[in-house]
Amino acid sequence: MALELTDSNFEELVLKSDKPVLVDFWAEWCGPCRMVGPVVEELSKEYDGKAVIGKLNVDNNAQVSMKYGIRSIPTILFFKNGEVVDRSVGAVPKSELAKKLDGQLACHASQHEGPGGLGPFPFLFLRSARDGLR
Questions:
Q1: Would you say the pTM of this structure is higher than 0.85?
Q2: Second label for 57, Cα 20 to 30 Å away, from 6, 35, 106, 120?
Q3: What's the DSSP call for residue 117?
Q4: Are strands 3-5 and 21-26 parallel, antiparallel or unpaired?
């Protein structure tokens, strides 16, 4: 289930996250938001443990909505390391949101690899290779 984001928990759950984050800015009265809502819920299940997926009701959380200039809903912002790195405005297909999330995950994974794409422990690999050549 997507996290319920608020003005008070936004910094902790979104800006300080070590994973890519998708935030759905929505309101109960918004028709297109009701179309996007189930898609966001599906993504939260599919990306569980890999990304943070949350929803922020703009009517109840004006502070964050104003900070990010949300003027049309639904608006979906993608965060990485506390910064907005992408956005979608309006009702968009699940495949488009998944593609953007996958792009963030690919960038996230490459940041955690060691030199040469050998994973986070390249020196263990190099040592094993060196020892095997003796």
A1: no
A2: 106
A3: G
A4: unpaired
Of 2, 23, 33, 64, the active-site residue reads 33
Residue 30 among the catalytic residues: yes
Amino acid identity of residue 4, one-letter, is E
Residue 107 designated active-site: no
Contacts of 122 (CB under 8 A, 6+ apart): 114, 115, 116
| Calpha distance 96→74 (Å, rounded) | 14
Q: Rounded to an integer, what distance in angstroms lies between the CA atom of residue 29 and that of residue 52?
A: 25
* Cα 83 to chain centroid, rounded: 11
Q: How do residues 52-71 score in pLDDT, each as one tens digit?
A: 999 999 999 999 999 999 99
